[in-house]
Amino acid sequence: xxxxxxxxxxxxxxxxxxxxxxxxxxxxxxxxxxxxxxxxxxxxxxxxxxxxxxxxxxxxxxxxxxxxxxxxxxxxxxxxxxxxxxxxxxxxxxxxxxxxxxxxxxxxxxxxxxxxxxxxxxxxxxxxxxxxxxxxxxxxxxxxxxxxxxxxxxxxxxxxxxxxxxxxxxxxxxxxxxxxxxxxxxxxxxxxxxxxxxxxxxxxxxxxxxxxxxxxxxxxxxxxxxxxxxxxxxxxxxxxxxxxxxxxxxxxxxxxxxxxxxxxxxxxxxxxxxxxxxxxxxxxxxxxxxxxxxxxxxxxxxxxxxxxxxxxxxxxxxxxxxxxxxxxxxxxxxxxxxxxxxxxxxxxxxxxxxxxxxxxxxxxxxxxxxxxxxxxxxxxxxxxxxxxxxxxxxxxxxxxxxxxxxxxxxxxxxxxxxxxxxxxxxxxxxxxxxxxxxxxxxxxxxxxxxxxxxxxxxxxxxxxxxxxxxxxxxxxxxxxxxxx
Length: 484
Prior knowledge:
The chain is α/β, with parallel strands linked by helices. The longest helix is centred in the N-terminal third of the chain and has 28 residues.
């Protein structure tokens, strides 16, 4: 018993000692010549010491690049009014922080918050459907009764004629109204003894928010709001003023106008409608014969943000109000926007939101909140990619066409009397890892029409697109290995 314990305890060490002794004796007996052993030679040496600042090139680059950017920041601020805020974030660093919590009129920059909240609360794949019902029986192609169009709050339900006024179709996502006519034809209906009936009961019937200045309505900044409106509620848009807001004529009853337009389209296809159109809710016992689904919300926000669609922003706002409180109104939607921002951990204490488009001159935002929303979404998000693109799409299509900013800036413009704004992202063409987030709001008696102030935006963004200027990270990195 004792011998076995001793063997287990001392056996392994003794075995290792014997192996070591054998190896030592073998090496002494070896006749390998000393000259045959080739010493290790190092063919190169490290040029940069291990503790050199070059071992952290990004840290070296940042202060140099920031110094290059400072003149552009100074020029922008010194040329603006006293009611100005500016925030510029590069990565997790804030390189400009001027009056970040000053509440200012954001103009159309509010649409960034509206679409952010809509995407967050309703989801990117949400669609809005316009439905077509027969109310009555169909015998031998004759509908003995009414054809009812039920509005689903599709903001861009348009005819081919309306859409043709825009040569720049990229990003103008919409629903082709004529598709519903195709559904009637497919159902075999050739005559309707009753009327085309319009149902707009999904939302309230406030055509223009009470917080809007009358001049904005007179300028046709938006068509009359409705859950069922074709061509954004306008009845005419002279071709000689294609795309001009002021040349358009709004309908007094957008839902009824939708029924009238539909009747004219049916007539063009040889389908007879015997009675005049009317506006009333869908009755019982109706049969669904057609449905037109809008593009997904991820596409609709591209149309809204890139082309600053006030109508689209307001319809989406009513949808948010309906989803949260059951009321499809502007005021309910504005509350839903604030609630969603707060639910995402964003500080809205200095913000005042009364509509979704930013036409309300009582709206107030801060550059800090704007930057926080943009940073929360990120440049690669649906929101980030929905903004206008420098030199390529939307309200920035004619800007930055011959600069480093071309195709690298995604931003939202904004203009009202007394307000000009620009916020978004700049993707560095120099370093793909560098993204600048910026928010710039200016208020003043003439800020909205002062070309000198608006003229500061473009050169500032051009300079931001050059960031980081100065030596590159590779230039500042460790020096190459030097051969001996």
